[in-house]
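We modelled the chain as a single entity of 126 amino acids. Its sequence is:
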Amino acid sequence: QVQLVESGGKLVQNGDSLTISCEAHGVGLERFVVGWFRRPLGNDLEVVAASRWTGINIQYTDSVKGRFAISVDRAKSTAYLQMNDLKPDDAARYSCALKDRLSRVPVSIPRDYEYWGQGTRVTVSS
């Protein structure tokens, strides 16, 4: 059993940077992949980034490559999403999720994730 709590979302201006956090409450986190997903208002859930909890096998969706960075601080049991040069299209509710690191299902598939946080909202004004 794992509980995930996101934090850090807020209103920012076009071009700003922001880091959001995902604190994990549980044990054996090294067995997981952590993914960041987002749901823009009125749109479908989409993957943003994913990483093994150990910090390897990092992947990003094309729209954020070069701007966003996923990382994990294992000592703090916390994953982060560093977002740079934010655009209005990045505005969404951002959620973190965990799934088995041995899964053969692509990291972009939400149904394969076992644990989810409630999300934190990021708003970007133009």
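As a brief sanity check on the tokenised model: The chain is about 0% helix and 50% strand. The CA atoms of residues 65 and 110 lie 20 Å apart.
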